[in-house]
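Standup, Tuesday
Yesterday: got the pipeline producing structure tokens again.
Today: sanity-check two examples.
Blockers: none.

Example 1:
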Amino acid sequence: MDRVVLDETVHVGKEILIEGPPLEALRFQEVRVGSLVTLTDARGDDFRGRVVTLSPEGASVLIYEPFPSPTESFLEIILLQALPEKERMEWIIQKATELGVSSVLPFKSERSISLQERESKQKKAHRWQHIAFKAVEQSRRARVPRVEGYRSFREALDYCEGEGLKLLLWEREGKGLKDTLRRSHPRKIYAMVGPEGGFTEEEVHSAKGRGFVPVKLDQRILRTETAAITLLGILQYELGDLG
């Protein structure tokens, strides 16, 4: 549902008819007539197209541009983000999508604001997935990152039961990120970023018990949104498709 993959090869200048599961994926991206989309054909090549017609039965897309290389990173990154105040979550989702994140999971830590507190001022959580859709269109990605439902800290840890490198940003006693990455070559990373006040020692202890490695970005103390985007950029540069 997060990527439009066709069972045929496509050619620039041709209009193709999309039905079945690829149409469901197209609709998941909330496209309209005139929307620009990235498609993957049967050979695994990515193309850019424009939606010409759209109906419940199918859609036609005019292919106008090939990509010389895949638009998606082979590195799967799951960003677990402690919910920040104001509109910072929207900004994080937008920029994380542009940087190729696979999914985003907002959670409540001991020192972060709760979703109820944030939504009492102005309801915005319902827009999170839509923001990812728009960022995908702007960045010409083929895959839409899924914005998971808001969870507690414990539930966020439960979400990370699968294989992969698990990193937790902790400015107090974390290991150096550079050295940690150079000792590992993962294809999947769980990246957990805390609130402005940082994680408590109890939270770090719990995360370590679930396989997380506390790391830090040198001696600088960054705002939570800056830390999240910096971490994603470094991960894609060192292990993914940036650079």
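Example 2:
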Amino acid sequence: MYAPPVDALAQARERTFALVAHLDDADLERQVDPLMSPLAWDLAHIAAYEDLWLVHRYAGEPLLYPELAARYDAFETPRAVRGEIELLDAEGAREYLAAVRERTLAAIDAHGVDPVLHEMVLRHELQHTETMRQAMRLGDLLAPGEPLLHSLDGHGRSAWVEIPAGAFAMGAADGVFSYDNERPRHRVEVGAFRIARRPVTNATWLHFTEGGGYQRREWWSDEGWAWKEDYDITHCHDAEAGLPDVPVCHVSWFEADAFARSRGARLPTEAEWEKAATWTQRTDPGALDGIGQAWEWTSSWFDGYPGFVAHPYREYSEVFFGTQYRVLRGGSWATDPRIATATFRNWDLPQRRQIFAGVRLASDLPEES
């Protein structure tokens, strides 16, 4: 059971502060990589988003600091420039968070809780703790003991799970919180396929590398090969540095696609992934092992489901639809369980490696004659 909204908001804030408690203000204020924001920007952005939705738009109050609205808007101020403009320092960001939270609690006292907006703002903060961990990993700032990847044990079971052909209901069910891109739930026909029981491990990835995985042109798409050559991508550092039997992490879609081709397999479509993850006809409980350790790339482009309606704002999903972003499923060690549902859709550009992303293979099954 989830905590009531006020308690859940407080718990999320405790998690946010605990995440950066081991860092000094200088680490919070510097930009470790143009791909990511200074951590202090994320903190102030969390405050600005909460003030916008729970105090201004929901309760009808003026923004606390309207002059900061554009600076802490993700579209108005892209990541590449966030390290170059004047921002609140770490202490200022913490004060902003505290002041907005006081306003939020007053608004809840006066107007109650909106089950969609308050949950959306709560999950927004939880998602940013993962985004902040991406920046922290690039800056070698993760807390001791992280990342929290666990060894995969085969338990003597087969390496593949066979999923029969048939339809299933894809997307979030009615009556639960979900993002607009998870709706509407709809019937999808999926052909027979098999999917790997476990994600690819570091040890298996090293075999790929040692076997010429980054030199064998025939395993790479044209776009993937061009990316690899342009950026001199020759290996996955995390696979080499990590434990051999934990899921490989921080590989791009291009690398995941090339790896799959090298194994005579492919990446699952997101419909296949969701059907396998929610398959109720299985006789083997827990058919997919290792879900939630690393995001799993799919072959699907990020787009709306049939009948998609943007809610509560277009910029969450719709502006990313098309043939630029690939879908990831399942969650990572840094994803809060409240976020990592079987229907949640993550997305990113195919060249991105900063996300906690790995690989699960799939392949077709022959049709019955």
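Quick observation on example 2: The chain has a mean pLDDT of 95. Strands lie at 160-163, 166-170, 186-190, 193-196, 295-301, 326-329, 346-348, 357-358, 362-364.
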